[in-house]
Amino acid sequence: MTTRIYIHREDAPQFTQLVKFPSEDDHRTIGDLLQDFVLKYNSKFASASPLDVATCELYAGDKKKLLKRKSVALKVLSNQADLFLQVTNKQNEAKPVTTSQKHGKAKQAEPSFTEVITSHLRQAADSDAERNFKNSRVIYEKVLAQVPGQLQCLRGLADINLSNQKHAEAKRILLTAVEAFPGSSLFHKLLGDALTGTGEYQDALEAYDKSKKLWKTDNTGLGDLDEASIELACSRALTKMGKEDLAGTLIMNVLKKDENHFDALFEYGCAVLDRGRASDAISVFLRLLVRQPKSKPE
Question: For the packed helices 227-240 and 201-214, what is the interaxial angle rounded to 10 degrees?
């Protein structure tokens, strides 16, 4: 199971990075996560004061436990863990818990705005995991009203609308997303999907082309995208435009690189079926049926 960790920058400008650990054999340390976060943050907010790895630390959870840089991340963190970056210095070390003194007694500080937003995002992630997308939508929209352009919310709403075939609404969200994150290959690809759904095929192809150009340099940390996915999305738009030959060329390009590519084989089966080659299509679909991963028992 893929482990997901969220790293948050508490001070403005706000930033959240999703880090994925696809394997239990991943030995990245807390120091590695910190360095990668700082690089992405400084790249995204070039006009802001740059972060320095030497003066930053990562804290875990609500109690703000300081994490040692040499610790292997998967050994000290659980799935869906929240880490908070704090800037420290010699004169004023960052404190795990903020308190204020009143009448000689320590009083727990109220949750910061960032902590409240982070709590909402955790709730949305939990709702997504439980497939309670109606609740996720409400939370994402609530957060976006307070933090326009919040990356996780834009991604979540885009996915929900696309999966429910609400292409016009997905288009609205994704136009905002590509404006807020112009370097995101994934957002441009998803915009292409939305435009294909609304019948704006030429605009969709332009979005896919932009996505492909950004694919190798994307540093937004969204992931979940490869070049084959973009080419197959292009092929679907071309098919809708009646340009089946061009669509077929893209599908075959993917299959040349990987003759067992599941999605490419599916698109190929659909293409030959549309051309009246039912027996060839059946052969392809049977091949896919055999290759389909079996679901694990609960």
Answer: 170
